[in-house]
């Protein structure tokens, strides 16, 4: 008996990825408008106030070189091996002590998870807390990177108005009662994008609301150590204790390329964060953790931050001076006591996104404010970075911007 | 008229995190049993075959030290600054050329996304493709880290039996028709945990099924360059082209502590991967990318891999010899042509998880096989790592394990 072979399958068409292959939450992610704008900003001759970059002229390159050399001379096989999901223990102890000392709170290494920059800290927080449709209470405007991290998990936003004392917390009750937010998210010190610092009274009220409604607070604090004027305000973590999850990073005070940030939180939450971190990327770059730990020894971090503060203070003042000189009277701006950013408000009818094209013609760049507004408002606002430009470029760039804004009439 | 003030709110109880505060997908994550086992394995005097660690005695510490020194001397301000979400372009070009050369495929830097180790590559893939309830077709056993990454996104699994030629692809049709998997996941070379390499015929059949049903293949390839015997099999990517997303890493061939892996895929998918990467952690450690790029120049990577292969070849052979000498006849094992792992099968009734306690009493550690089986089978199997032990320890440790297994009767 002959057994008839089945005919071979017709050769299928070459594989092509279609939208249905992807998870909608990923496929529908929008590219950051900031990233697109940064491409324009890098054109030759453009003075850019767009990025959130620290000044590379201030990187402690030589000290990092020496630290890396010592790490590989003395701990090479350990720094190059797999590490723990929670992070390199001596670095966690250093972070705990520093956060505790500056924040007036009690912390140990067990309260610290090391992350790949504070963007990953935001992502870990999003993963740990958010389900699709959950609301996040935040400021209007708020940090764009947090919106990007949380939105992947299906977050919606309950944006609260700000004044010069930060989020207007006295307005949150009806919003909380209606939307039951899962998290409260704030950048209390020298906020990105506005540069505004939340007052102590508002911090206390926020903690009170957090306790009253049982909603954790995410206290995102990348700039807290970069104060150039005024006096420190007690940290939300020191007021709220267990309820507060504080995020920090070495990106703005040492180097963003090393990608070392952290989450400081109660032990109750750390088990969840650790398991999330483990399935995400096992652990943070071990070599970079060793290098940072080696660099910060013997007060080197404090000395470096003092250098940063002197330089950024000058740059902030130069920008404020130039704005007074060159911006028309119809334009207003914040006067931040620290951080990297100033916030500009154009006349109501102006569109900072459209105006960006005129700015590029004048060879100067900024970031339009609209993407920082989860409700799509803020079309007449924009963000200026003052940390990543020389004093000369600040003067010249603001002069160019002044010409652009003068056309607004 | 007196306006009566509302009474102050009673001071609320201190905040306490409860399960309802967390997203269930995160709260319910299980800690990796491997992580728990590694804690036991690190006790003094224990010979551990448990981890998946490369041998630290073989790390190119001095060359990395020189590379780091050159990077910070010549490119300090760039290596310490923010970078691109896709990764450092020269490194992406190097990876593209190397993957193309070894895999017989056409690739450019545009096809490469640099990730924080290949665990993050798995996470990015999970984010990009998986929705809750989606099935992933995989081997039984399969890599535990992939299960952890995918499970966060709600994946379920369609595990397919393996023989010495890898996944028995001829059995997939009814499974695919019933469960409509969103992805096919394989570790084709020296699989973790089994050490098995998929035959060319099976690879071709897998690609045919992928084309036929329109399901992308994840070709996870951390060990492909570590072959000690036999000859290379054409890569799934070279057979399947666009349909295949290949994951790679420098963890096993340079250093896991530097956490540099990658995704090699068609441009159609790269836009999604890039946006996912951006909201996850902005970009991979820039300094580590520069250091690796500096290290691999002038054939240094090939020379280093040759050294690894000589050493791991000896260790594999030492373990196989010792197993023949000390293991009872009722125990069988694989003879991998490369990679870091051997796979052991105990008699049917044996429980490798329970037996771990006896092993620890004998001061020797392994990983029980059950967690690598998404269907909960494999209780009588276990994984041994041979890359992270000296020849003496391999002999002595296998001797100890032989004593443990002899009690099985």
What does this structure look like?
The structure is a homodimer of 409-residue chains. In chain A, the strands form 3 sheets. Chain A has an 8-stranded mixed β-sheet, with helices on both faces. Chain A has 2 domains: 25-60 and 302-406, Aspartate Aminotransferase, domain 1 (Alpha-Beta Complex), CATH 3.90.1150; 62-298, Aspartate Aminotransferase, domain 2 (3-Layer(aba) Sandwich), CATH 3.40.640.10. The longest helix of chain A is centred in the C-terminal third of the chain and has 27 residues, at 300-326. Chain A has 409 residues and is an alpha/beta fold. The radius of gyration of chain A is 23 Å and the shape is globular. In chain A, helix 3 crosses helix 12 (286-295). Chain A is built from 15 helices and 14 strands. The mean pLDDT of chain A is 94. In chain A, helix 9 links the parallel strand 6 and strand 7 (217-220). The interface between A and B is large, with 96 and 96 residues.
